[in-house]
Each structure stands twice: as C-alpha cells, then as structure tokens.
Design brief:
The chain is about 55% helix and about 5% strand. It is mainly alpha-helical. The strands form three sheets. The chain has a three-stranded antiparallel beta sheet with strand order 2-3-4, with no helix packed on it. A two-stranded antiparallel sheet has the order 1-5. Strands 6-7 form a two-stranded antiparallel ribbon. Strand 6 and strand 7 form a beta hairpin. Helix 5 packs across helix 12, helix 6 (about 145-150) packs antiparallel against helix 7 and helix 9 (about 220-245) crosses helix 11 (about 285-295). The two termini are about 35 Å apart. Bound molecules: fe (ii) ion (FE2) (2 copies). Pfam families: FA_desaturase_2 (PF03405).
Length: about 400
C-alpha cells in the first residue's frame, strides 16, 4: 500500500508550514504505543526544562493549514444546512440537565446525610475504577483546549467569539454542554473522599497548559473526523464507567456516567453527520482526510497529561482503562469499523487515484486493528506490574 503518498499527498501539503521549536532539548520518539495511547509525535520531557513556563510536554514538527483554501467555501455554503441539521442536535438550556440534579444540594437540610451516603457507596468501589474516572474527568476538564482546537479549523472558526454563523453557534453550544461533564464529575469526586483533589487539579492545570496536538492541521475535514471518533470514544468510556459503577452497587454514580455518555452520543451523531455530508459533497477530500487521520492514529485528547510526577501518566492511565475494559484496543477497532460503515467508505465511487488509495487504506485498517487488539489483550494478561497514582494518594494499581 502506498502509505507514504497518503500521508503527504502533494496537493494537501502545498501550504504546509513546519513550526520548529527553539528548544533543542533531548526528545524521545514513539513512547509506549498502544491503541489507547497513540502518542507518536516526539515530545520533550519536563525534567530537562530550564524555562519554567514552557509546558512539560512539548510537541514538535507541527503542521498547519494543509487544507486548500478554496475548500473553505464548502463550509460557508453549508451554513444553512448546519442550522437545519447540526444545531438541532444541541439541547436548549431550559431542558438540559445540570450537575446539581445529580448531587446533594448544599441548601438542603439533608445535605450531610446525602454526602455520607455518597461516601458510603464510594467505599465499595475499587481504586482502579477511580483511576479511570479521574482520567475521564481530567479529559473533560481540558475543555478550553477543545474549544480552542475547534476554533483552529479554517472556514468554521468563531471569528469574533460571539459569531452568528451556524458553525460558531455549534462550537459554543457544544462547549457549553460539555462544560457540565467536568463540573459534574469533579463535584462528585470532591465529595466522595477517595481521591487527591489537589493532585487532580494540578494535572488539569498542567494539561490545559500543554494543549494538545491531534494533527488536524486546521482542516475541518480532519477535525470533524477526529471529533466523530472522539465523541464515540467518550460515549463508550463513560458508558463503561456507568456499567462498572452499577456492578459495584452505586446506581447514582452509574446514572451520572450514563447521563454524560448520552450527551457524547448526541454529539457523535452531529459530528458524524457533518462528515457524512463531506463524503457526499467531496468524497475524494473526505476519504483522503480520513486516511490521513487514521494513518497518524487518533491521538487521545489528554495525551499530554502530567501530574508533576509521573512522566508516563497517560500511558499508565490508558493501561488501567484497557485492563478494566473502560476503553480498550477493541473499542478503537470497533469505532473504526463503525465509522467506515457509517460513511459507507467501501462503496465510494468516482474517486481519483489518490482517493482510491485512501479508500483502500481505510478499508484494510479494521482487520489490522483486530490483530493489534488480540496482541494488546495478550499483553494485558501477561503483565502484573503496578503503578502508584498520585490521584489516589499514591496507592498502587495494577497496570
Ligand atoms: Fe464530554
Ligand atoms: Fe461530547
């Protein structure tokens, strides 16, 4: 397969600009690679830092503006379509749930009693579950990064901060909905008494400072493919933490995670509908973008997380999520299979040479991922090492 030609199709990279960081610090490439932690860029470690305000993990070789500028017109022409078809996936504020609906009310005379009950239920839940829930919370809490990321996309960004294009209204509405996810999980975790809130807060501060680099290159094609994938990933992950909470007898926590999962599903529906439209209007551009994103692997949004101590925090969190089945290599392959079917990639016709190669690449990925999935499961069975997580007061958890 002509992978190289797919990764850098000439017309896609005409306006490519490489950002070369001034830093010449030691870098390492390809840290532990798993389906859940696909950090393939090189990045610089914190321990060598001389400038205190540089992020602990720095991404090198960043590429910007790879989408030909004329493609921005497609998004302008879709503004009415987005109003009719995408904004309808948002929920009006008045009929939206709020975190307080799921938490003890501080104004209630039963507040202390309710908190006591919440803490009693939390005692029945093992530490490894809390590692996953904290990782999910931290991922949600880096929301400023995700809104920033959506506003890097050419042709759909919110140009003023209060723009009335459908794309900008969507981005702000989506952000406002997402904001409740981190709020709810954080308030629950604060009350449950099982986790080190200060370490969690530090991790969030570090992560937002690091940002994220997901190789979307300012292209809404790539960006909305990424968000389709990622919303489904978070839907699966929150759905699994809901299932596990139920298993440990905590119906209320199950309801919290399940409610968040339902939001993610609604968001996935919207983003995947945008990409479906792109496949209809510009199948070549859409399939090439899809192949590029998959070739780079979908990088998880919190891939640069750091707690001030563990240099491999994200990999360790991912390993626990994999072992518990909260988010695993199987899910990655399932999502890929789902999206290939959702966008009917196999039956695309009338593609250019480059488009056909991209189609071929994408369609052959699922069986390859299934093999990697088997290997990941094998590795998980072999390993019995443990890691201390600062999020749970340095208690050890099996990875
Ligand atoms: Fe979310
Ligand atoms: Fe979401």
């Amino acid at each position: 397969m002509a992978l190289n030609s797919l990764s850098s199709p000439s017309n896609y990279f005409q306006k490519t600009l490489r950002l070369s960081p001034k830093s010449t610090k030691a870098t390492r490439s390809s840290p532990m690679v798993s389906m859940t932690s696909t950090l393939s860029s090189t990045y610089t470690e914190v321990s060598t830092h001389k400038k205190p305000f540089r992020p602990p993990h720095e991404v090198e070789d960043q590429i910007i503006h790879s989408m030909p500028s004329e493609k921005m017109e497609i998004f302008k022409s879709l503004d009415n379509w987005a109003e009719q078809n995408i904004l309808t996936h948002l929920k009006p504020v008045e009929s939206s749930w709020q975190p307080q609906d799921f938490l003890p009310s501080p104004a209630s005379s039963e507040f202390y009693e309710q908190v006591e009950e919440l803490r009693k239920r939390a005692k029945e839940i093992p530490d490894d579950y809390y590692v996953c829930l904290v990782g999910d919370l931290i991922t949600e809490e880096a929301l400023p990064t995700y809104q920033t990321m959506l506003n890097t996309f050419d042709g759909v960004r919110d140009e003023t901060g209060a723009s009335l294009t459908s794309w900008a209204i969507w981005t702000r509405g989506w952000t406002a909905e997402e904001n409740r996810h981190g709020d709810l999980l954080k308030q629950y975790l604060y009350l449950c008494g099982r986790v080190d809130m200060r370490q969690i807060e530090k991790t969030i501060q570090y992560l937002i400072g690091c940002g994220m680099y997901i190789k979307t290159e300012n292209s809404p094609y790539k960006g909305y493919i990424y968000t389709s994938f990622q919303e489904r990933a978070t839907y699966i992950s929150h759905g699994n933490t809901a299932r596990h909470a139920k298993h440990y007898g905590d119906q209320k926590l199950a309801q919290i995670c399940g409610t968040i999962a339902a939001d993610e599903k609604r968001h996935e529906a919207a983003y995947s509908k945008i990409v479906e439209k792109l496949f209809e209007l510009d199948p070549d551009g859409a399939v090439i973008a899809f192949a590029d994103m998959m070739k780079n692997k979908i990088t998880m949004p919190a891939h640069l997380m750091f707690d001030g101590r563990d240099q491999r925090l994200f990999q360790h969190f991912s390993a626990v999520a994999q072992r518990l089945g909260v988010y695993s290599a199987k899910d990655y392959a399932d999502i890929m299979e789902f999206l290939v079917r959702r966008w009917k990639v196999e039956s695309l016709v009338g593609l250019s040479d480059e488009g056909r190669k991209a189609q071929d690449f994408v369609c052959r990925l699922v069986p390859r991922y299934r093999k990697l999935e088997e290997r990941a499961q094998g590795r998980a069975k072999q390993g019995f090492s443990t890691v201390r997580f600062s999020w749970i007061f340095d208690r050890e958890v099996q990875v």
